């Protein structure tokens, strides 16, 4: 681990855990606010800059995800304010990754118990399923977030305070940003400025991260050590999204820093996984799977395992654990090679 010292607004040093997170700092502390401010100062750029704002909001979600697995800074205070800062551009408090992703998705990995499980709700991989997956999964994740907040309120007052702060900052800043846009530019232009700079990008970031999760797991084998996830391996596209395309290695080693994912994927995953799970890009996969496959059988790819096979495996697991001995654990560790999840929330790092 290489540490790098940056300077916070109060003049104190904030030490990065990894030198690669200089890029994270540039994206979050410079590009994200700068692109939003430009649209407020020069409202004619609103709309034209919206695609860039959407990309940066998506990156805010990726950074929030990375930050909750491997905190960006060494000290707890810096990690706390950074979580709150990126929540503004992501559009939702970053703490929510902990109960829904760190503690749930990584534990169950598209198997029964995962709030974002795909094959319980969608029997075929098509564009409609991919588009609506966010809404179904968000409904299932709600109770996880509510229980996490209730537990924090009861037992962890420091964490509960940060949760309240994140909600207040995210919704407070967005309300203030909308009010400022309306005051500066009038109703119609002001609404466009806010929507382009912050509103629509944040909404699409929430949807986009869930859409990505769908593509990374659909038609894969959740009980396999190497074939439970699809990987998007294009070097240049991964550069833009902090190597978020390497998903199998992330599940196997969730505490691994994002900058090390490519090398670890090439060494530990690529030689063993099904070659069909190495796609160049999300865009190419969507084009092939959801458009070209409709007009040509050439582009139709069978799932690694069918839903019927997954349901049979689930019944087998249920029968096996219904016969467990009294001293066996209540929750089966159905992963291979040890658990694939690690909860290292930035709020307590």
Shape: globular
Cα(first) to Cα(last) distance is 16 Å
Binned strand content = under 5%
Class of secondary structure makeup: mainly alpha
The SSE order reads: EEHHHHHHHEHHHEHH
Low-confidence stretches: 7-11, 330-349
Helix content: 55-70%
How is the biggest beta sheet arranged?
A: 2 strands, antiparallel
Average predicted confidence as pLDDT: 91
Q: How many β-strands, per DSSP?
A: 4
The neighbouring-strand order within the major sheet is 1-2
Q: Helix count?
A: 12
- The value of Rg in angstroms is 21 Å
Please give the structural blueprint.
Blueprint (H helix, E strand, L loop, with lengths): L3 E4 L5 E4 L4 H21 L8 H20 L6 H15 L6 H12 L18 H29 L1 H29 L1 H31 L13 E2 L2 H6 L6 H6 L8 H9 L8 E2 L2 H14 L11 H16 L27
Parallel strand pairs: 3-4
Antiparallel strand pairs: 1-2
Helix pairs in contact: 1-2, 1-7, 2-3, 2-4, 2-7, 3-6, 5-6, 5-7, 6-7
């Amino acid at each position: 681990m290489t540490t790098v010292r940056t300077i916070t607004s109060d003049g104190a040093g904030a030490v990065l855990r990894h030198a690669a997170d200089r890029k994270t700092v540039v994206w979050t502390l410079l590009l994200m606010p700068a692109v939003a401010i430009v649209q407020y100062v020069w409202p004619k750029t609103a709309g034209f800059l919206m695609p860039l704002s959407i990309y940066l909001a998506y990156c805010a979600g990726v950074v929030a995800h990375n930050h909750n697995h491997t905190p960006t800074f060494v000290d707890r205070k810096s990690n706390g304010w950074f979580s709150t800062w990126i929540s503004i551009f992501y559009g939702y408090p970053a703490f929510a990754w902990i109960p829904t992703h760190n503690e749930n998705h990584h534990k169950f990995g598209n198997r029964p118990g995962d709030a974002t499980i795909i094959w319980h709700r969608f029997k075929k991989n098509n564009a409609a399923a991919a588009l609506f997956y966010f809404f179904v999964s968000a409904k299932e994740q709600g109770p996880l977030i509510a229980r996490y907040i209730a537990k924090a309120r009861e037992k962890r007052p420091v964490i509960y305070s940060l949760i309240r702060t994140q909600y207040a900052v995210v919704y407070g800043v967005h309300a203030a940003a909308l009010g400022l846009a309306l005051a500066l530019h009038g109703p119609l232009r002001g609404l466009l400025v806010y929507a382009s700079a912050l509103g629509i990008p944040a909404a699409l970031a929430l949807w986009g991260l869930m859409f990505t999760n769908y593509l990374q797991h659909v038609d894969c084998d959740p009980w396999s050590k190497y074939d439970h996830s699809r990987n998007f391996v294009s070097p240049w596209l991964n550069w833009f999204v902090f190597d978020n395309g390497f998903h199998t290695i992330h599940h196997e080693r969730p505490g691994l820093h994002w900058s090390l994912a490519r090398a670890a994927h090439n060494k530990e995953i690529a030689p063993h996984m099904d070659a069909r799970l190495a796609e160049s890009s999300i865009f190419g996969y969507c084009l092939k799977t959801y458009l070209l496959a409709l007009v040509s059988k050439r582009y139709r790819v069978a799932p690694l395992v069918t839903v019927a096979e997954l349901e049979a495996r689930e019944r087998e697991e249920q029968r096996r654990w219904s016969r467990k001995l009294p001293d066996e654990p209540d929750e089966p560790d159905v992963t291979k090679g040890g658990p694939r999840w690690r909860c290292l929330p930035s709020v307590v790092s």
